[in-house]
């Protein structure tokens, strides 16, 4: 049997300076403590990876956007419109010239951009919703009538080719120029089987001037009255006496 040391525990611990190296024991004792992660410092926690990825993606997109639309950071980018004004004016003049020299083709382009959605590519409209233009008495009648409709629009019930339509057509006086209105009016008036005479731009300008004070759309009754020469340029206020309309402007040379 091994001998037992009966000395007190205090006497079993070597004292410093007795020739015993205590350093290995100190390292062994603290090794477990050093393995533990240190407490985080408030305000210096690592950012989530999704946040870092979002910043990187935003920087990448911003660089692409500047490269695509920044105009190479040239100062001319900010005055580009001024440099293009001459070209825009020349293009507008060319379109106006085309509308005068070939109103049917110009009117076809105007119709395709502004009218085809309602009256359709065939000019037959949509039954019950939008009236047809081909064979319409409102289109092939007096040229002033179709010009009035194009300038100020039309609302309320209207009879077209024996069918009743009750809707609203927008005004185009603030959108289309005189040459464009004349061109599209000429186009639909000569759309087979329509065979009505062309509408000159001067006639549109005369109607625009005569109707300058009117802001409301036409009704079918007002248009019929205007054809008979009895409708004022602007609707009268309730209870106000009717004012005789001004005489129609003479047609331009060669106009119907």
What does this protein look like?
With 256 residues, the protein is mainly alpha-helical. The chain has a domain at 95-227: Cytochrome Bc1 Complex, Chain D, domain 2, CATH 1.10.760. Helices cover 47% and strands 5% of the residues. It has eleven helices and two strands. A two-stranded antiparallel ribbon has the order 1-2. Strand 1 (154-160) and strand 2 form a beta hairpin. Helix 4 crosses helix 5 (103-114), helix 5 packs across helix 9 (178-189) and helix 8 (143-152) packs across helix 10 (201-210). The chain is elongated and about 120 Å long. The chain starts with 8 loop residues before the first helix and ends in a 29-residue tail after the last helix. Mean pLDDT is 78; it is low at 236-256.
Strand and helix map with partners:
Elements: H1 9-12, H2 23-35, H3 49-69, H4 80-101, H5 103-114, H6 116-119, H7 137-140, H8 143-152, E1 154-160, E2 163-169, H9 178-189, H10 201-210, H11 220-227
Antiparallel strand pairs: 1-2
Helix pairs in contact: 4-5, 5-9, 8-10, 9-10
Q: What is the correct CATH architecture of the domain at 95-227?
A: Orthogonal Bundle
Output the number of helix runs: 11
By CATH reckoning, the class of the domain at 95-227 would read Mainly Alpha
Please compute the radius of gyration using only Cα atoms: 43 Å
How many strands?
A: 2
Give the CATH H-level superfamily of the domain at 95-227: Cytochrome c-like domain
- Helix and strand succession? HHHHHHHHEEHHH
Uncertain runs are 236-256
The proportion of residues forming helix, as a percent range, comes to 40-55%
Overall morphology? elongated
Distance between the termini: 141 Å
The main pleated sheet reads as: 2 strands, antiparallel
Cross-sheet strand order for the largest sheet: 1-2
Structural category: mainly alpha
Strand residue percentage: 5-15%
CATH topology of the domain at 95-227: Cytochrome Bc1 Complex, Chain D, domain 2
């Amino acid at each position: 049997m091994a001998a037992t040391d009966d000395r007190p525990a205090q006497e079993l611990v070597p004292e410093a300076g007795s020739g015993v190296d205590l350093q290995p024991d100190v390292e062994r004792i603290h090794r477990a403590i050093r393995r533990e992660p240190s407490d985080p410092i408030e305000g210096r926690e690592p950012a989530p990876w999704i946040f870092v990825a979002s910043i990187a993606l935003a920087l990448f997109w911003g660089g692409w956007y500047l490269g695509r639309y920044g105009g190479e950071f040239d100062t001319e980018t900010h005055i580009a419109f001024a440099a293009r004004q001459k070209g825009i004016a020349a293009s507008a003049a060319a379109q106006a010239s085309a509308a005068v020299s070939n109103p049917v083709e110009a009117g076809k382009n105007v119709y395709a951009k502004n009218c085809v959605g309602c009256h359709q590519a065939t000019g037959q409209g949509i039954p019950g919703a939008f009236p047809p233009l081909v064979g319409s008495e409102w289109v092939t009648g007096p040229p002033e009538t179709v010009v009035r409709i194009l300038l100020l629009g039309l609302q309320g019930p209207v009879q077209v080719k024996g069918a009743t339509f009750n809707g609203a057509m927008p005004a185009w006086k603030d959108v289309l120029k005189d040459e464009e209105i004349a061109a599209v009016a000429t186009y639909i008036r000569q759309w087979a089987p329509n065979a009505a005479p062309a509408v000159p731009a001067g006639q549109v300008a005369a109607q625009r001037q005569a109707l300058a004070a009117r802001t409301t759309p036409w009704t079918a009754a007002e248009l019929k009255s205007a054809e008979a020469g009895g409708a004022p340029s602007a609707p009268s206020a309730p209870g106000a006496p009717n004012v005789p309309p001004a005489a129609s402007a003479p047609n331009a040379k060669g106009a119907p």
